[in-house]
């Protein structure tokens, strides 16, 4: 009978009939594959952790740089600097305008002085014909000299009458031209001359 045989022999024959060697080899290959896969996964995880640490350090550095930039560049300080520069720009423009006005005034004064110089050169060293003749200034010449010292130049027309006056105010840098055609009284002209000087 079958059960009368030794159980070890029966088990041995049963194992031989199942032929589990290929299965054992397959399980061994699967274990090796799982081990290789686990190692590859561990390597990828370590690489990802290393890249994450690098990115984290870079983010920290950039955040610190950003905070330093914001701290060093204040919006209120920038606005204040812009306002200061605008104020300086307007001051410079005003100074340039004032210098231009002063330049025009000095040009006018230079033209007057050149005309006076030319007049003196025409008179010569001895003072012209009147001085050579030993004549004194008459009343009209003295009046003209006083007028010129006050900044008033009077021009004659073709008839020899005084028809136009040019009044220069050196303090204000103004020049006024007045036509004296007799429409107004001498009192009016005198007041006008004094108000413009």
From TrEMBL:
Residues 96-123 form a coiled coil. GO terms for molecular function: microtubule binding. Its main location: cytoplasm. It is found in: Cytoplasm, Cytoskeleton, Microtubule organizing center; Nucleus; Chromosome, Centromere, Kinetochore. Keywords: Cell cycle, Cell division, Centromere, Chromosome, Coiled coil, Kinetochore, Mitosis, Nucleus. Component of the NDC80 complex. This is Kinetochore protein Spc24. It comes from Hyaloscypha bicolor E.
């Amino acid at each position: 009978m079958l059960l009368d045989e030794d159980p070890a022999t029966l088990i041995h024959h049963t194992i031989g009939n199942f032929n589990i060697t290929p299965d054992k080899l397959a399980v061994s290959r699967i274990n090796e594959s799982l081990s290789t896969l686990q190692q590859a996964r561990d390597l990828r995880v370590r690489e990802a952790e290393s890249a994450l640490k690098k990115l984290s350090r870079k983010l920290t550095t950039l955040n610190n740089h950003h905070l330093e930039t914001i701290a060093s560049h204040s919006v209120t300080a920038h606005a204040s600097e812009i306002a200061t520069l605008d104020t300086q720009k307007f001051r410079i423009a005003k100074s340039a305008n004032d210098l231009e006005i002063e330049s025009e005034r000095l040009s006018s004064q230079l033209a007057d002085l050149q005309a006076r110089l030319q007049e003196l050169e025409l008179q010569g060293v001895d003072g012209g014909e009147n001085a050579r003749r030993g004549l004194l200034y008459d009343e009209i010449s003295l009046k003209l000299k006083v007028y010129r010292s006050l900044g008033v130049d009077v021009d004659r027309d073709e008839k020899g009458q005084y028809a136009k006056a040019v009044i220069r105010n050196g303090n204000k840098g103004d020049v006024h031209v007045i036509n004296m055609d007799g429409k107004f009284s001498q009192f009016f002209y005198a007041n006008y001359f004094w108000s413009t000087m």
